[in-house]
Amino acid sequence: WDPVENASLLPWLTGTAFLHSVIVQERRGMLRVWNLSLLLATFALTIFGTFLTRSGVIDSVHEFSASSLGPLLLGLFATIVILSVALVGWRGDQLRSPGSIDSPVSREGAFLANNLLFTLVAFIILLGTVFPLIVEAINNDQLAVGRPYFDRMLLPLGIALLLVMGVAPLLTWRSTNGHLLGTRALGPAALGALTMAAAVWLGAEGLGPVLGIA
Questions:
Q1: For residue 101, how many other CB atoms are within 10 A of its CB?
Q2: How far apart (Å, rounded) are the C-alpha atoms in residues 65 and 92?
Q3: CA dist., res. 12 & res. 27, Å (int)
């Protein structure tokens, strides 16, 4: 969990969330404000990642040599965040859709759950990346946030994402009744169970790898 690699992952997460939620906007005309926020966050996080890479504030094998661009990039990042929040607050009401999600057990409900999970993953990674910098700036103490934190926090979210990815294609738009969902899920669930059993039989160990193979 190198800080520079984390910084490059953050805009990928928010950008991927946007690529999923924009489908809901195209299909149902919903989540316009949310999609705009994701786009603005993706751009801001790209600038933030550049700041971490070029400023020399972190110790990483992937960082460039420290340069005078650090304060400029930090100022640009702060400006983008302030203007983005102001823009969404100013124009958000005009973009907001009058419609709403009819049922959480629907294709758009699954897309929203997908988005929330991606955003939460991005926040946890961002917190683990910048927390040592904040502590050092306040107390001048050296602190490292390593793999145990990320594994403990992200493993449950990763499993939840896998479940959403597996269920979402089985759902219909607007609402899905339980009988239809059960009928559609029977085949994939049986195949997944067989795959998990085969993975364990072949020597796969640990919950994460087994679920990932399934």
A1: 17
A2: 40
A3: 23
